[in-house]
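Schema walkthrough. Field components (list of strings):
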Amino acid sequence: MPKVQKLQREEIKSSFLLLLPATIGLLIFSFYPIVSAARTSFFDVSALSLKYDPIGFTNYIKAFQDKIFLISIGNTLFYTIAVVLLQILVALIFALILKNAFFGVGFFRTAFFLPAVTSLVVVSTIWKIFYHTDVGIFNSVLQTIGLAPVGWLTDANVVLMSIVIVGVWKEVGFSMLVLLGGLNIIPADYYEAAAIDGASGWTGFWKITLPLLRRSLLFVTVLATINAIKVFIPIYVITNGGPMNSTQTLVFNIYRNVFGYYKLGYGSALSMILLLIVGMVVGLQFRLLRSDVEY
Amino acid sequence: MKKSSLLILLSLIIIASLSMASCATPAPTTAPVADQPTKVAASTEAPAVSEKEVQLTYLMQQDAVLVPAMQAVVDDFMTEYPNIKVTIDSAPFSEYHTKLGTSFAGGNPPDIFWTDIRTAMYASQGVLMPLDDRITQENRDDYLATAWNETIYEGVTYAVPLHQLTEGIYVNTQMASDAGIVLPTNVEEAWTWEEFMDVAKTLTKREGDATLVWGFSQQRPLQDWSMLPLFFQNTAETLSPDLTEASGYINSQAGIEAMTFMGSWYTTEKIVSVETIPDGFPNGSLAMMQAPSSYRPLLESKFPDFKFTIVPMFKNKSCGVTTGGWNLGIASASKHPEEAWILVDYLTRTAHEKWVTTSGYLPARKSVIEANPQFGEYPWVVFMEQLENCAVTRPATPKYSFYFDTFKQMVVDISVGGDVTSVVNRTAEALDAELGQ
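Field assembly_structure (string):
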């Protein structure tokens, strides 16, 4: 018995030692900035002078009276819902197709994954050129087939969807790869047994594939949601928040306040609200997509 | 067990010190303006310099022409002052102020930096060194009066003008000639709004829904620098004289008219593309381009075979063109203010002529203008005449970044078809709320 206890103690010690470097990194580079931002949000601070003037909850009250901030919440939620739904749907379709072995499957898997490892700044610049009303490829195609050009970046009703397309295109490959991994570990016996019982492919998908894919789906949904809520680069490079504030998003608004107007305290308050929103959404997803199935 | 207790203790100490650090009130990296001792230097004469080697950092705008031109001038300086070493750092204009602001926030600003209309913003935050004691009256009087407009905040001078800048209209010579367009040569002959619109419509070429050549464009599109002339030309202002109110100014009848005229470029007359076309002017997709004098050396170096003619800006009730440019400021946190001032004085006085002739910017010193007959000849004269008769400075508010973004949003929204009156009223409301604080 004492031998077991000693072993357990050794194991705990080793685990602790192994976790220590990552914990220190997290404390310094993640938790400290969060605590610091939380504290700064209760001050009126200019990023230039760094003079701290305590103002209590004023920054938070101001945030909910700020029309641009409220618009940015709405736009961010729309963007997040659209990107996450489309991304997972497209990724699932691709994963189901590419799960099968056929000639050239490796090429397609690589090709779909490629955007995930490219620089978003470069990609956004290229998409901006594609979307150009006069010289962009999309409108050239539309005009060639006799359709009217679309104001991809100038029509306030269209522009956020243009950014959604960029977001989906960029991230769908990664989600596809995770779902592909999830599909590949579902035992083939289940499908065989279902087939013997007369289940169709469609029934197999709903009754076997989808329930057993919940963990992978939870993982990609949470990651896609966090990425989508934090959308910044395509907005900064392609639209700068316009036109008509139609692409003002939370992180872009924070960036503009901190780095444009040097409002460090106000920007910190907005960051805390963002943290709260991300926490709530991810918490909800964990609850809805939780899976206790073991196989 | 002892070792694990030690590790736990170590972790607790780290956590505690991090929390303490976050709770402590950070000391400002820069002292308030009033606390900054301003040493008087013998500015106009050769200042006494210590023999000890001093390293200065210098931040400027990145540009294919500007950086080599400035490096040549700084090299001359380092030959004359071998103990002062200057390291030039640069950033493209779109990232320049973010980089500068971040350097202040990080407590590591450059000793000397380019500052534009945002001088008031930096000065109001105490990060710029007051320079009144260093600038002699003789030095001050040698500048064109408008040159100081961007450098003064609450009566104190915080920067020295490096040059001046105005805009003209660059016209594709071949296209204008083919269309039989007579080009104005001076402000007196400048196109009126109506004449300009006729010229731009003539030069615009369409085929079905596609536009092959746009009549007009701007090098700095959809922002205050390019669009404020419309207000000036229609005798409108965007802000009250104390720069705290926009209602009744930007949305005055004259202001609405100016923005309605601008909106028609994009919506009804379609002479300007809402989205920029990179290198569209030298490549023949744009017939005319509103751009500053510094655009000429860029065009000449990148497209040596392209033929263009520069004409004055259009006018309406009066002529009007934005002026300004870069100024040199010294960070109040600089550890070498004396040497920094020597460099500022050298660049703005000794090297002024060399700088403006190589950079394409306009001279700000009367002595340099008088000593160089070339500034009275084409193409310089197009800009110099406007600088003398039509130049207006942007509003030097300490909240200029907000003004800039809000103004930009207004012109972008109008360019995509937003209702002019409601967009301008909304802009006035937003500016009032922020500038009035």
